[in-house]
Design goal:
By secondary structure, the protein is mainly α. It has 7 helices and 2 strands, in the order H-E-H-H-H-E-H-H-H. Helix 1 crosses helix 2, helix 3 crosses helix 4 and helix 6 runs antiparallel to helix 7. The chain is globular.
């Protein structure tokens, strides 16, 4: 990828997002924001649903192209010592490459960093491609993260329900049901 491809923050593309405008949509600027928060993680293998990454990259590409003057102003104002045109070209070129690779491979994995980080990423991609029945199979990071977060939240809710059962505010039958959770 081009050198500046993961630097969405430098371009300040988030100022054009309107996450509250269509808050009830299943996909929207919130998703772009979440990917933008992870796009530049150094040394971390990241992933997303391929179509979701395509949507996010195309949304960023639309902003980069439709608001070029504002993006260039943000790039010039940033503390990066590189030429704003170089950064802009890197962002646009990387967005086009990300979109093409994701469409072609039907996988959306990325990392920022060094050769060792790339090799770890390739290994994670290989393990994710294996059938789920293969003992070496490992789900993509975004699916593992989602499952982990959901499991943690469910456990946290169970603990809250147990504490409520112990509060003495509820009938014995309800307390028993709450403790059974």
């Amino acid at each position: 990828m081009p050198k500046w491809g993961a630097c969405w923050g430098l371009a300040d593309v988030s100022r054009f997002w309107e996450p509250d405008k269509h808050w009830d949509n299943d996909v929207g600027h919130r998703d772009v924001y979440l990917i933008a928060c992870r796009i530049d993680h150094v040394g971390v293998s990241e992933s997303a649903d391929p179509d979701l990454l395509i949507y996010a990259v195309q949304e960023v590409l639309c902003i980069l192209l439709a608001h070029r003057d504002a993006v260039m102003e943000s790039l010039r104002a940033s503390s990066v010592s590189s030429d704003a045109d170089e950064v802009y070209q890197g962002l646009v070129s990387a967005a086009l490459q990300m979109r093409a690779l994701t469409s072609e491979q039907r996988m959306a994995f990325w990392t920022s960093g060094y050769e060792a980080d790339r090799l770890r990423l390739v290994k994670k991609m290989e393990l994710a491609r294996l059938p789920a029945s293969d003992p070496r199979h490992s789900p993509p990071p975004h699916l593992r993260r989602f499952a982990g977060e959901l499991a943690w939240l469910i456990k946290d809710q169970e603990a809250k329900l147990h504490r409520l059962a112990q509060s003495g505010q509820f009938h014995k039958d309800l307390r028993r049901e709450l403790h059974a959770i």
